[in-house]
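Record 1 of the preview.
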Amino acid sequence: MTMTMTKTMTTTMMMMMMMMMLMMMMMMMMMMMMMMMMMMMMMMMMKMMVMMMMMMMMMMMMMMMMMMMMMITKKLTKTMMMFMMMMVMMTMMMMLMMIMMMMMMMMTLTITKKLTKTMMMFMMMMVMMTMMMMLMMIMMMMMMMMMMMMMMMMMMMMMMMMMMMMMMMMMMMMMKMMVMMMMMMMMMMMVMMMMMVMMMMMMMMMMMMMMVMMMMMVMMMMMIMTGLEPLTLE
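->
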């Protein structure tokens, strides 16, 4: 399917696209809900972290909405511009905060020479989040440059993947059950399949990027799964 996004595109196609996007949004919302619940189930210690994450996710969603608007109206109003700038700034700030938190953790680690399970989890979450944020930022920039519907879908997929990953992390940390892991893996596979199908219709460059991303994520997962137990020196 090599459809060029030109004026010749039919209204029906446009409608279909819109529907797709709406559905994606819905799915994302659901994912977010699940994720938030997971987070709520985490320790009290992580409250601030949870808040930050939620805020980030919300921001991302907002940004996406904005993008949608822009795509539909083909206009970029001053307010929207301001809003976007704000978002970017906020996300950056949050990233900084996370890094700071990480540093603090490291400090405590060096002083106490102990690495507790909670701290491990916390750090993992931090790393994952910062990585995701960076990735999302990059994606945003790309979107800004290219302004394509396909890109939009890519973004959604990315978001979904991230959510899935986060949920998996939570699950694994909550209950290290083989069954759970298996189920999660299955879920991941399904998502990947979906993504593959989507990607068939997308450009090669993006495909490559996605592949790298997925590989990275999977590798992270593996590392965490194998490395979580030995590292807990309680």
